[in-house]
């Protein structure tokens, strides 16, 4: 497992190396972990002495960067080439190790002499696929790690250490103290995982978690409309997962935007699998059919789902001619809006009947 890490250092651009004294700087966290696991990565985390950290702002003047957590524990995030490079400071390594989230992320590589320092359990846990907190206060110190734990369990197919499992259970309500922006970032990364991996992660901690909806997610994964983006970083499928997971534990919806929560709330609206109920729902949301699609997938009986998805697909493509609407309005003394609705109703009813009786 302790493979040659020199080639990892070679991946760091010289422009970034010029920012620090290599003999006092350590690479730690995801880059080291993923390199050892032979996985792709795009983020580097460095820790430097505080006196060097205080000089970084002047050295970064010609680079693109942002400052995060300015008031609490400042971090410089530098964007260079296709990677991000994070810089924080340390006082002593033993203290820093105890403040890390999980042992698999507590492997430190000195960039000068390539010396490796780690939590005593780091390499054992990385080799055996174990998720273990670095200290009993790991989650309490930064509750966003609650969600991160499930992401790691899912992403890396890990098994949770017993004490860590109990800490997660006891700390779940602390997660609501996390800033929503951070919570959302971590939640979406978790939701983008394979649903079977998500299940295996959750039942390790919450053994009674109800996954009776699993087939609905598998069905939804086949629907291109649900794989589309709702926001630039979330899909309709993500929202459906959050809907089901959040029914038992609202932590798995915490951090979603108002727009995303609006879709979740609509899933609970009562729609009956008959023409009138479906048509009225479709007419209200004809410009946002994904609302209706999510509701159908979440609530209709599984055996009728394919028919109703096909009905909705054909309804979306249906257009009515304005000349026909005008004629209908004139013949029946109706407003254009009312006439449009009635003409559309007739066209959609024919599709509904054809599909339901095929």
Helix/sheet category: alpha+beta
CATH topology type of the domain at 1-120: Beta Polymerase, domain 2
Count, helices: 21
CATH architecture of the domain at 1-120: 2-Layer Sandwich
Helical residue percent? 40-55%
What percentage of amino acids are in beta strands? 5-15%
Instruction: Spell out the CATH superfamily of the domain at 1-120.
Output: Beta Polymerase, domain 2
Query: Biggest sheet, strands in spatial order?
Result: 3-4-5-2-1-6-7
- Report the strand count: 11
Shape type: elongated
Which CATH first-tier class of the domain at 1-120 would you pick?
Alpha Beta
Task: Indicate the radius of gyration in whole angstroms.
Answer: 26 Å
Can you summarize the main beta sheet? 7 strands, mixed
Uncertain runs with pLDDT below 50, 5 residues or more? Answer: none
Roughly how many Å apart are the termini? 59 Å
Mean pLDDT, all residues: 93
């Amino acid at each position: 497992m302790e493979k040659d890490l020199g080639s990892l250092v070679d991946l760091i651009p010289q422009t970034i190396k010029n920012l620090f004294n290599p003999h006092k700087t350590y690479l730690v966290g995801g880059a080291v972990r993923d390199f050892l696991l032979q996985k792709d990565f795009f983020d580097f985390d460095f820790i430097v002495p505080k006196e060097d950290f205080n000089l970084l702002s002047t050295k970064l003047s010609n680079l693109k960067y942002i400052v995060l957590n300015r008031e609490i524990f400042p971090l410089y995030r530098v964007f260079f080439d296709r990677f991000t490079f994070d810089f924080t400071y340390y006082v002593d390594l033993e203290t820093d190790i105890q403040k890390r989230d999980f042992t698999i992320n507590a492997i430190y590589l000195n960039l000068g002499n390539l010396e490796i320092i780690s939590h005593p359990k780091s390499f054992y846990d990385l080799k055996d696929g174990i998720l273990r907190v670095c200290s009993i206060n790991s989650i309490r110190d930064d509750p966003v790690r609650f969600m991160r734990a499930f992401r790691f369990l899912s992403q890396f197919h890990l098994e949770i250490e017993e004490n860590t499992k109990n800490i997660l259970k006891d700390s779940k309500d602390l997660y609501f103290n996390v800033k929503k922006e951070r919570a959302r970032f971590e939640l979406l990364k978790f939701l983008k995982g394979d649903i079977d991996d998500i299940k295996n992660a959750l039942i390790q901690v919450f053994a009674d978690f109800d996954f009776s909806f699993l087939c609905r997610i598998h069905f939804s994964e086949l629907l291109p409309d649900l794989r589309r983006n709702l926001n630039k970083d979330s899909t309709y499928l993500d929202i459906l997962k959050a809907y089901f997971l959040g029914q038992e534990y609202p932590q798995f919806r915490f951090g979603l935007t108002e727009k995303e929560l609006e879709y979740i709330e609509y899933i609970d609206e009562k729609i009956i699998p008959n023409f009138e109920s479906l048509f009225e729902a479709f007419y209200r949301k004809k410009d946002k059919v994904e609302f209706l699609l999510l509701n159908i997938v979440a609530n209709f009986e599984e055996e009728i789902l394919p028919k109703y998805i096909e009905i909705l697909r054909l309804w979306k493509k249906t257009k009515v001619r304005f000349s026909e609407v005008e004629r209908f309005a004139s013949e029946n003394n109706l407003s254009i809006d009312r006439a449009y609705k009635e003409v559309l109703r007739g066209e959609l009813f024919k599709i509904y009947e054809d599909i339901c009786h095929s």
